[in-house]
Write a structure and sequence with these properties.
membrane, YndJ-like, YndJ family transporter, transmembrane helix, transmembrane, 9 helices
Length: 289
């Protein structure tokens, strides 16, 4: 499981975050996205070192980079408060999802520092801290970002606006509830998993029904279809695991979840989604007079 989790996290650090930053704001975040692989390299390297001082220092360098995204989120929030665009205030669903995406990597970075130092932050087992890192790169950053992108793309589609807004709120909300569940109990975590799964299934439905038909080529359409299908399967696994943890019913092990839920979310959902939305963004840029 360790090697697989490290590979997934490395993908999140070196590709997913910079690709997502370009989708959030290709102008203001272009410079950050361009240098992000260099900023993330210490974090990626520390994953493969034994726990100790060197791994902790490298993890801290990555955590510092994630804090720069928190600063970006604060600047963005202040800008929307002072000069809110139509339908894009700080509490607008798509904007709330984007702000969540910018904040999520800092949670992953903090957990990474503690895990590499061998420190049980808030009393959590080191395995839990290790799994928090990919969770907040993918469920935190990517899922919230894609929910926001889907909301923006479908809010004007008849019959889809309410569902799109709900998805953009429930994905960040569900992620927060899962995080809070870590501190409360397994039932609170299950509640978060239910909310998050509902939001992600809404994203999958909107992607399949409203976004995919607008793709200009088969490759983009196939990437969108794959991402939607992956969400249905991987979030069902997440529900199964959370229900089993809360009730004691038979459920997958963490190793099995990493190999199915984790890998499916990383490759099937996150990677395919970002590649598809990158292509959609380029298509719109090329067709804008």
């Amino acid at each position: 499981m360790t090697v697989l989790v490290h590979l997934i996290v490395t993908l999140g650090m070196l590709y997913v975050i910079p690709a997502g930053l370009r989708l959030i704001d290709p102008v203001a975040l272009r410079g950050t996205a361009r240098i992000w692989p260099l900023l993330a390299a210490p974090g990626a390297v520390c994953l493969w070192l034994p726990r100790g001082a060197m791994a902790t220092v490298l993890a801290a360098l990555y955590a510092a980079a994630t804090l720069s995204l928190v600063a970006r989120a604060a600047v963005r929030l202040l800008r929307t408060v002072r000069s809110p665009a139509a339908g894009a205030g700080p509490l607008a669903p798509a904007e709330a999802a984007v702000l969540t995406a910018l904040l999520a990597p800092s949670v992953a970075g903090t957990a990474l520092v503690a895990e590499r130092a061998g420190y049980r932050l808030f009393g959590f087992d080191l395995d839990v801290l290790a799994l928090t890192v990919p969770h907040f790169h993918f469920a935190g950053f990517t899922a919230a970002l894609v929910a926001g992108l889907v909301c923006r793309a479908t809010r004007a589609v008849p019959g889809s606006g309410a569902l799109a807004r709900w998805a953009a709120y429930s994905v960040p909300g569900g992620t927060l509830l899962v995080l809070l569940g870590y501190f409360v109990d397994d039932w609170a975590e299950l509640a978060g998993a239910v909310v998050l799964t509902g939001g992600m299934w809404a994203v999958a439905l909107l992607t399949w029904r409203d976004v995919r038909p607008g793709a200009r080529d088969r490759t983009t359409g196939a990437l969108l279809a794959t991402s939607a299908a992956a969400l249905v399967a991987t979030m069902l696994l997440a529900l199964w695991w959370a229900l089993g943890e809360a009730t004691g019913l038979v459920h997958p092990t963490l190793t099995w979840m990493a190999a199915t839920h984790g890998l499916g979310n990383a490759l099937g959902f996150a990677l395919c989604s970002l590649l598809a939305w990158r292509r959609l963004t380029l298509d719109r840029t090329e067709t804008t007079p």
